[in-house]
Amino acid sequence: MNMPRNRALGYGTDTYLFASSSGANVSWLLHALQRSGTVVPVTLNAEVLDERIAALNPQAVFLDFSDDQSAVAAEVHRQLKRDWPAVAILGTGAASQPATMLTALRAGVDDFVDTAASPDDVTGTLTALLERRSAQQSGTRGRTIALLGAREGLGVTTLATNLALILQDLLKRPPLPASPAAENVRGVALLDLGLPARDGLLYLDTQSDFSFVDGVRNLRRFDQTLVQTALGRHTSGAAVLPLPSTLSQVREISHADSVTLIKRLADFFDFQIADLGGFSTIDFIAQTVMEADKTWVVCDQSIGGIVSTANLLRDLASRGLEAQRFSLVVNKMDNGVGLPARDIAARLGLTLAHLLPSRRTPLVAASSRGEMLAHTSRKDPYVQGVLGMAKGLLREYADGAQIVAPPESSWSAFMAQITGKWKSAREG
Hints:
Blueprint lengths: L13 E6 L3 H10 L4 E6 L3 H11 L3 E5 L5 H14 L4 E6 L4 H10 L3 E4 L4 H22 L2 E7 L6 H16 L16 E5 L6 H6 L7 H6 L6 H7 L1 E2 L5 E4 L12 H11 L5 E7 L4 H10 L2 E6 L3 H15 L8 E8 L7 H8 L2 E7 L2 H9 L4 H4 L4 H18 L11 H18 L1
């Protein structure tokens, strides 16, 4: 996963929305954040904000709770948190009017800024909030592993499905969360995006009426409940999100929205394995690789496979993705062919990461029985190779150091004080 970008303010490149009917308050925030970015005033209206958030992708949204706007601001906040849960939302108002802060508290804003405060207080509050959110996201987001194959037949889908199942088993995740309130990150998701389409579903003997295109179309409501109820599930608990049965639907969604979905899925799974074997849209591959934590290029010993892979790497390089981003997995390795894996890596200019032996007969035999070799023969050399890949991922990503959250803001202290008084009153 790409690490969160520096949230410190002062670069002047970010965009903030301020929903307020008070010209004086708008002028105040414009002045307070003039060195931090652009403040765009908008009407305190959920539909207008919805349109502006979609168009501008703001760093944060400010809602004005002052005077007679508080009830409207609270309702707007409710709708924004439902439709845009990842957006940071701050309330504004006069701290000298406790009722204003209490309304914002009850609404559930992420933080609060005093319209009588100095600009330094505003930027400090905003910086602390964004850093807290980055720390929380860094501690919970899963990892995306992209598997590229320049053409069909290189074994990418077979590798992706077996890798997903082995990772799911190693993580010891239950098949389904106990409740919608369970941990956000859970288990493994296979993004079955390779060609031939939906082969991952076929190999896993799994059904799914909900496709990757459906996921993109439902980005606004993509939450834990949808993940639990809509995505296909293998008996192991691994989730599967395939291409649609009608491939022409893929042309109806943008590459940017597709990558946004992949990023969103990282909120719900420890790992997502993106099978891009044979996928022909180079711009989508490039954008996916940019978001992936690790990208393995899968190739075999065939001249056709090597030439096609070299062409794929050249196309990606033309989009700014150099060979250092990738490592090589030589699949279907047969020592009798006389073309060593290191020679293939040298020809492609890639670091050799893994070797997987040619095991066509046991793989086809397991598939013909509706089974996965990863579950029926753990001692098979192919499965042992994939197991090594999975353990390497866990060593690299699953044991990362915990990020220490920044100190609480004054808003957090205010909430603690208020909630403490409520608790004391109830207990009394």
